Amino acid sequence: MDGCAQRARGGDRVKLLLVNYEYPPLGGGAATATQALARALNRLGVEVHVLTSSDPGLPGNETEDGFRVERLWTGRRHRDRCSLVEMALFLTSASLRLPSLLWSGGFDGAVLFFGLPCGLLGLPLKHLFGIPYIISLRGGDVPGTEPSLNGLHALLRPLRRHLYRCAAAVAATSEGLRQRSLAADPLPVTVIPNGVDRVQDPGGPSGAETRILFVGRLAEQKNVALLLHAFAAISRKEAHLQIAGDGPLRDSLEILADDLQLSGRVTFSGWLDRSEMPALYRRSTLLILPSHYEGMSNAVLEAMAAGLPVIATAVEGIGELIADGQTGIIVPPGDAPALARAMDRLLDDATLREQLGTRAREHVEKCFSWDAAAQAYLRLLPLPQPEFNYAGNHR
């Protein structure tokens, strides 16, 4: 690292590699976080190179907001999800690309999103090229979050712990996720919350229609079936539910909506372009997140930044965003009647909605910043600390 330090002290820009098998328009919250972190690091004067998966119709290499995005072939078939085979193909493609990329790149460090699969690239980064790496835990990569992966997590425990020990640091997006990681692997974990982009003019719901919003991947984790059951039970039958997202459960959820006689009251809009999200939040009345678990929800952060009141389940990562009754409403996980009552309560009380939305926006503007997150990642790497133009506050 001496050469890197001398180069940084000599005035050259620090250069970081960000690796995630998902990157917009592929993937969900971790993909969005990778993009936001890359932008923040670039604003701080860091040279960033992102390594991710390709998709038909996307360029293999491009410059985005001043940093490089390189997409590798993985045979990926769906934008909203990635199979274990496709993850393995990404690792293979990335491993083949690393030597030429690193020999020519002069990287000072790397941030690897997800302990597995991307964390596996940490070993060649460190042992073959002397590049320190951070593993960024996002949720499903932590044992105990996804029951279907319990066997795989147990099988890979020795390798996972070796990856963590060799890392310059392991970071989690919330204290709840940190505690879950510690329970599985008693190794140090630092909390670096996600950030959120500032909304200049959040405005308010446009039009008279009452619109309930869900944003996220349609997978077991998000528990959208519970939302549909709760929505069917609310008293405000004129309300409309928009489900923005896609995933493996979409077909079954559409069938469930029909079975619950919600035809005409529920819209499945699929994935929306990021540019459409501000208007979507503005025309919505409230956001619902009924998840079984969360690392730290970008959708909740974005809704709060837009002044939109949020109802979410009491799971990891939510209590660090929402103070129940102050900046949102928290309900027990898996309790459809409680969720329906919370929706009725907010739909019937415009004053409470306004108060929660205002406090929520003030809270995230004060405590959650992508620039602060970028600063925190930089401080975890064994780099000289140049005079970056740090902005924002970090909790």
Q: Main traits of this protein?
A:
single chain; 395 residues; alpha/beta; Rossmann fold; 2 domains; 8-stranded mixed β-sheet; 6-stranded parallel β-sheet; 14 helices; 16% strand; disordered N terminus; disordered C terminus
Compile the SSE list and pairings:
Blueprint: H1 2-9, E1 15-19, H2 29-43, E2 47-53, E3 61-64, E4 67-72, H3 84-105, E5 109-113, H4 122-127, E6 133-137, H5 150-155, H6 157-166, E7 169-172, H7 175-184, E8 190-191, E9 211-215, H8 224-233, E10 240-244, H9 250-259, E11 266-268, H10 277-282, E12 286-289, H11 298-305, E13 310-313, E14 329-331, H12 336-347, H13 350-367, H14 370-380
Parallel strand pairs: 1-2, 1-5, 2-4, 5-6, 6-7, 7-8, 9-10, 9-12, 10-11, 12-13, 13-14
Antiparallel strand pairs: 3-4
